[in-house]
Amino acid sequence: MKEGESIKVITFGDFLISELKNTHFSPKESEILAFVIYKKHVSVENILENVWEIDQMPCRNDITVFFSKINKKLKNIARLNTKDSIVSVMSNKIETDFGNFERLSLVSLDKKDTKSLKKAFDIYNGDFLPSVSSDWALSVRMYYRQAFFEVGKYLVYSETNVSNEMMYLKKMIDLGLDYNVVKLIVEEIEKRYEFDLVYEDFFDYVLLKNKLMRFSSYIGMVIIFDKEFPLEDNIRKGDIILKIDTLAYKILIERNWKLSKEKDVELFLAKLKDENAKIKKVEII
């Protein structure tokens, strides 16, 4: 290793060593390296038990071959070192995105340090090692995903600028947060608006994302009434509405998967009519 050399390891979204952008690590090499970096010091047996399925576990000689291949690709900036069956990554300095995210987010949430939380939010660019299906990676992935949600939720709740609020929500949805999670945030946002309505940019964005999903969570509609009707007082928990004018609304009603789309719409409109709504026109969007 050269004096002063350091490595920056990216695990959110995909595995990458910034100083070795043109170096390809195989999926198993990436996982071994990520596992050792995450654990800092780990036994050979622990690597075998966590990185491989029990019926695919290689012998110790085979894992030594993996170590040699990894070290060759690491060149002079780091190396996997084994001493007394304990493996670690030797480097002058190792900087990880998950380490920076955890450092900035966990303490900052307690202190309500918005500046640090914004930095943490920017660091998280996707799931931890998304292509790795091992139990250890799944556990770590869920841990950081939940932490990212808590950071995003805090930033949205504390934000007073609508554009920034939208930016946080877009990233959270883009990175695959479940609609049920997003809805919790939406409910809080709705409290800021008269009639419990959301703003147009957010409505249109959720509608677009909904259309792109394999299994959509909402049915989108435009409803025009013959006379004014307080639709915001007659929606179900989980529905999202946008008021266009005094007689027209856009609405996303949450799907009931036990019913067909047509039946779901029929029951929703029937409920409105039971509340004396005079519906002039309904258009599915």
TrEMBL record:
GO terms for biological process: regulation of DNA-templated transcription. GO terms for molecular function: DNA binding. This is Uncharacterized protein. The lineage of its organism: Bacteria, Thermotogati, Thermotogota, Thermotogae, Thermotogales.
